[in-house]
Amino acid sequence: MRIESLKKAASATFASAGMLAMTAGAAFAADAPKDPLNSGDTAWMLTSSALVLMMTIPGLALFYGGMVRKKNVLATLAQSFGATCLIAVLWMIIGYSIAFTPNPDAGMNNWIGGFGYLFLGPMKLTTVSSLAGTIPESVYMFFQMTFAIITPALIAGTLADRMKFSAFLWFMGLWLLFVYCPIAHWVWGGGWLGTAGAMDYAGGSVVHLNAGTAALVTCLVLGKRIGYGTENMSPHNLVLSVIGASLLWVGWFGFNAGSAVTAGYNAGMAAAATQIATAAAALAWMFAEWIIAKKPSVLGMISGAVAGLVAITPASGFVDPVGALIIGLAAGVVCYISAVWVKKAFGYDDSLDAWGVHGVGGALGAIMTGMFAKGAINTAYPKGGWLTDGNFSQMIAQFKDVGAVFVYCAIVTFIILKIIDMIVGLRVSPEVEVEGLDINLHGETVHN
Predict the structure, then answer these.
(1) Is residue 20 predicted with pLDDT exceeding 90?
(2) What integer is the mean pLDDT of 306-327?
(3) At what angle do helices 265-293 and 321-336 cross, to 10 degrees?
């Protein structure tokens, strides 16, 4: 009885204290302004940022590293790792400022952001003025940094086995500043394409079409690898590529669902659409290859999955599950045709199919977003798309987005490559290419 009495007394005391605390808290809350920072949104965006960073290292590094020949594995890994380091610093110094901050010249704001955030100087750590919606601006900056990192790194899939590492680093830095940042501003930073109504939820044109177009130009400027078409250039270790593709798949939920910038309904639909489209695209590529080549390869399955991830990226927060399924199925078939048959027909050496998967998949996804977007899914775009809500004008906006990104990226990428070629040279010597980039550029091999 004594113990029971103490328990009852303690319960009564805690209950009374709790009521007093609630009363005092309510009185205080009536006077104090509500903090707009949402800890749930912030936690989700920190998680999303880490997931997207994982897509580049180790995801993309392993995906590409497994598909090159053994003599160039470390060089391929070094490209992803080096790009991550270089772009993170450049983003902090100037990239975020010119991509996402307003230009004081209103006329120029359609084209490029301002220089007010150089070195992130005005970014405060604890004040309400440094919020991006319901999260700290530092978190939003970090999230966008991970996008800026993976976009140029994707281009490495087309220049494998033959570009100098010094030229690669110059290319990554210049391409970030003169191609990625302006286009990110056009679509997401208050520029002319976003104002014109282009829908790109997580980077169909800004990331994938952009990187894919640069990849196509780069492989044409570099020329074919020595022995292309006559030597065996099959992947040296598909296990690494499967692991890399799996990390990309998981990390992509941060990429797409994180683009909601909240932990809410839209993030949930974006995640569901991503999973559905990816699975559908992997199956579509696999069955297309099974029918045409008579065998469903592992490389085909993981390539199909990446194609689905790419194509659903611009649409993920705008379409319902049925739209995601259709986009995934289309991406698997179209990207298989592009990466295998179109490349073979035209004879260009897109080493790891960066154009065939990212360029074609990004353009396809952007256009199909205009078809299947539903106004009820994302209230920020209530008019929806052509086939779902009868809004054909959205198709015009999407084609304008695809065309502008392709043309601008192709021209500026070509100029950057030619300038680098004149200064340091783009391609390694034939002797280095034959012996391998690992030992010649980095002084080490996979199996010392």
Answers:
(1) no
(2) 98
(3) 30
Write phi, then psi, for 2 (nearest 5 degrees): -60, -50
Q: Which of 359, 272, 270 is CA-nearest to residue 311?
A: 359
pLDDT tens string 353-370:
999 999 999 999 999 999
Dump strand ranges (E) for 83-148.
Answer: 131-132, 135-136
pLDDT one-digit tens code per residue, 324-335: 999 999 999 999
Q: DSSP for 269-301, please give it.
A: HHHHHHHHHHHHHHHHHHHHHHHHHSS--HHHH
Q: What is the pLDDT of residues 363-420, one digit of tens each?
A: 999 999 999 999 999 988 999 999 999 999 999 999 999 999 999 999 999 999 999 9
Report how far residue 189's alpha carbon sits from residue 206's, in angstroms, rounded to the nearest whole number.
Answer: 11
Report the alpha-carbon distance of residue 381 to residue 86 in Å, rounded: 36
| 120, two tokens | 């992130």
132 beta partners: 135
Domains and CATH numbers, the chain: 39-442 (1.10.3430.10)
* E strands present in 102-244: 131-132, 135-136
Residue 301 has pLDDT above 50, yes or no: yes
- Enumerate residues 6+ apart whose C-beta is below 8 A from 224: 347, 348, 349
Is residue 425 left, alpha or beta, with left meaning phi > 0 and alpha meaning psi from -120 to 50?
left
- Spatial CB neighbours of 166, under 8 Å, sequence gap ≥ 6: 424
